[in-house]
UniProtKB/TrEMBL annotation:
Coiled-coil region list: 56-83
GO BP of this protein: positive regulation of DNA-templated transcription
Transmembrane domains' residue ranges: none
SMART domains attached to this UniProt entry: BRLZ (SM00338)
GO cellular component: nucleus
Signal sequence range: none
CDD domains recorded: bZIP_plant_GBF1
Family annotation (PROSITE patterns): BZIP, BZIP_BASIC
UniProt name for this protein: (wild Malaysian banana) hypothetical protein
Residue ranges of domain BZIP in the record: 31-94
Name of a matching Pfam family: bZIP_1
This protein's UniProt keywords: Coiled coil, DNA-binding, Nucleus, Transcription, Transcription regulation
Amino acid sequence: MLLPVDDHFPPLDLSWLDPEPTACPSLSPVEQRRLRRKISNRESARRCRMRKQRHLGELRAESSRLRDENRELASRVRTLAQQTLLLRRANGRLLAESSALRLRLTELRRLVLLRQLLTHGGFGCLGYEQELASLIA
């Protein structure tokens, strides 16, 4: 006697048992029920073990997938960290260059203003003192 079960596992061979415990007249009804229950419990335990094995296989597959994903994400994080470092260095250089250029521009504006004052005879102009003060500052 073969009992049908999942598609993943072969059916359990119970041919060694009497297919009908009630067919054996030497067993009392209580013993027959106990025997049927014993058979049922064994089959139920077997199905439970099969489900557990299937679940364990699914968990292993998911674990492997998550490990692969974790490696990929760690690699991306390292790449992004390197890019961030390069960008911060470039940004620092650009900020320093910007500051130097700003100072140079201020100096050039002062020189232009001073040249204008000297070439246009700004000594008699109104506001000359303010322009001279801005050059000194």
